[in-house]
Amino acid sequence: MPMPTELSHGTEPGVTPGSIALEDGQRAWTLEALKLEVSDLAARLERDGARVVATLLDNSPAWIVADRAAAAAGLVHVPLPLFFTPQQISHALQAAGVDTVLTLPRAAAQWPQLPSQACSVAGQELALVRVPSQPVAMPANTSKVTFTSGTTGAPKGVCLTEAGMRRVAAGLLAALEPLGIRRHLCALPFAVLLENIAGVLAPLARGVTCIALPLAQVGLRGSSSFDAAGLHAAVLQHRPNSIILLPQMLRAWADHLQQSGQRAPECLRFVAVGGSAVGRPLLARAWSLGIPAYEGYGLSEGGSVQTLNLPGAHRLGSAGQPLPQALVRIGAEDEIEIGGSLFAGYLGDSTPVPAWWPTGDLGSIAADGFLHVRGRRDHVLITGYGRNVSPEWVETALRSESAIAQAVVLGDGQPGLGAVLWPAHADASDEQLQQAVDAANGTLPDYARIGPWVRARAAFDFASGMATANGRPQRAAVLVAHASELGFGVPPPSTPSQEISMTFYERLVAETADARQGLLGAAIIQACLRGEVSLPSYLAFLREAFHHVRHTVPLMHACQAALPVRNRWLEEPLDEYVQEEIGHEQWILDDIAAAGGDVAVVRAGPPDLATELMVAYAYDTIVRRNPLGFFGMVYVLEGTSVSLALMAADRIQKALQLPDRAFTYLRSHGTLDNEHVGSFALLMNRIQDPRDQADIIHAARAFFKLYGDVFRSLPLAGTGALPTMPDRAAAGAPA
């Protein structure tokens, strides 16, 4: 069985069969043991006749074995991120012609109709699922297909060769050789190409130990939720010399260290930061806290990392100098072009890859060879005074201020620029945000300074529709949702490239943003997020949740039965929703019991009037108005769960000191709904009839108001009164 080059460098300094190649916090694998695992899995995949293998796994030694086994057997590996929606996963499987999926047994259960076999890899019990497929034409020598989730729901497949990926890994090894790195902690998903190459291929080739922990153990949940304390604990426990982080992860870690009076441990020699611009102030703050952070630049089409700052070759504010394998130049209109280690092509596109690849990024190269990236070419704003401004440049300056977590800069065709801000802390005052804007403006020329700004109506994440799954802002949606508050009109497009094209889901988010804010502004929600919660208020919330969640499945069945012929295609998605929602009311009863409540009283008792009205409106919408209006309720309840459930559970548990088993509904529902939101967005984008779209938006606005009334009916911490809703008996509610 041929072994991949990365596992066969017996002559490399420090690479011996007895070297520890992998750790997972429980076990360790020597290089020789890893080779045996790779050989066994490669042989099995060959026996099974696999051609294109997808992995749908958390970070683990098993993922690394699968990756190297596919290369050893000459197969194509398609790593799938866990944060992809079911629709995105289906798209990737079909687009790449995947015939075999390696995943956890419980994940394999989503394909009950497909043959599945047990498979033990690196001590982990997995399932090999055979998927019916048609061969797909790919560029010659394709070894890996990495899917990038851009601004649409259909991710794009980038085809890479093993030789190209090795060149990038070799370039990194040559650049980092003087640092003597012996241990690398993997903190990004392996399905992300940056970690796959810089955190797995390169370390394994040099005999560096890869510490492959489940992502939750390094603080990462999904694509945009991060616990810096979890990362810090992992660093202290495992003592790595290097880590790769995204800018928001670096910022959160720096905040955690600063607030807790700690410093990063001295074992760290190199922390690479990439994915978007970092900014001088954040890098300087990281260094002051002992984090040796170095910014880099790259993209999947170039095999990941192209340029990198290094000890002894470091310029704050730059993306570093080109690595040995990379060629970088500035082309027409200041566009960055790369060469030297390019991809083989895109899936489904036979266009030859040119020697110099236009990145779509704008930048410049200084006399000393350091690359400076200004932003995306297609994002450039042209102000009313004719000045071209790259919004990413200004956004980096804003995010460099500690009060601002995220920012989107707008102003195309306007006299000046405005910004939509998401504060770093919920209790940040307008005065603090204005001071942060003023400080950022002090670093910018007059034409790039921010004038008006507003707080974001919703977090910049996929659940809100304001960002893609990998965190890039959906600028059109942000503009439409906030233009009037900024005093900006939405100007008619002057060129096709400036058209504001919104999906229906983006419209749904934008046109209900004010109603959503009304819900989130409920006093009890704001109090909960401050940690001000009482046991009676939590039990009251669970009581009302039980009384509306018990109607979820009946409402779905009612919606199915009322669908007109033109919308019968929705029956299958509703069937899937039904299967996922069955039994959730029992979760709530179990939580009530664990929190000390009386389950029998809740089950037999009536709901509050506000809950009763919301449920009644849902049935009425289905029967009397338009059954598709029910999806307005789905959007409100699931979107709210994504935004609040996990955060609220943590706040409530900390305040009330309740056991984990008292939060099954909030934590499980929040995690499930995070997946549902992506599926829901794709489902809504298939609805084309303007009448159906209008009815869904109308219903969503109504449900935001009705669900807000449910929260407003709950007792606030420290009170026994229901603060805003009328007494049930006085209102004529049934006893």
Keywords:
41% helix; Heme Oxygenase, Chain A; 28 strands; 3 domains; 24 helices; 735 residues; Rossmann fold; 9-stranded mixed sheet; globular; 5-stranded mixed sheet; disordered C terminus; alpha/beta; GMP Synthetase, Chain A, domain 3
Describe this structure in words.
This protein has 735 residues and is of the alpha/beta class. It folds into three domains: 5-372, ANL, N-terminal domain (Rossmann fold); 380-502, 2-Layer Sandwich (GMP Synthetase, Chain A, domain 3); 516-712, Heme oxygenase-like (Heme Oxygenase, Chain A), CATH 1.20.910.10. 41% of the residues lie in helices and 17% in strands. The strands form seven sheets. A nine-stranded mixed sheet has the order 2-1-11-10-14-15-16-17-18. A hairpin with a 7-residue loop joins strand 8 (142-148) and strand 9 (156-161).
Summarize the helices and strands and which ones pair or pack.
Layout (H helix, E strand, L loop, with lengths): L19 E4 L4 E3 H17 L4 E5 L4 H12 L3 E4 L6 H11 L3 E4 L1 H4 L7 E6 L2 E7 L11 E7 L7 E6 H15 L6 E3 L7 H14 L2 E3 L8 E2 L3 E2 L1 H11 L3 E4 L1 H14 L9 E4 L6 H9 L4 E7 L4 E5 L12 E2 L4 E4 L4 E5 L5 E2 L10 E9 L5 E6 L4 E2 L5 E2 L1 H9 L4 E7 L6 E7 L6 H12 L8 E6 L19 H12 L17 H8 L1 H8 L2 H7 L5 H15 L2 H11 L8 H11 L2 H11 L4 H6 L4 H17 L4 H27 L7 H21 L5 H23 L23
Helix pairs in contact: 1-2, 5-6, 7-8, 12-13, 14-24, 16-19, 16-21, 17-18, 17-21, 21-24, 22-23, 22-24
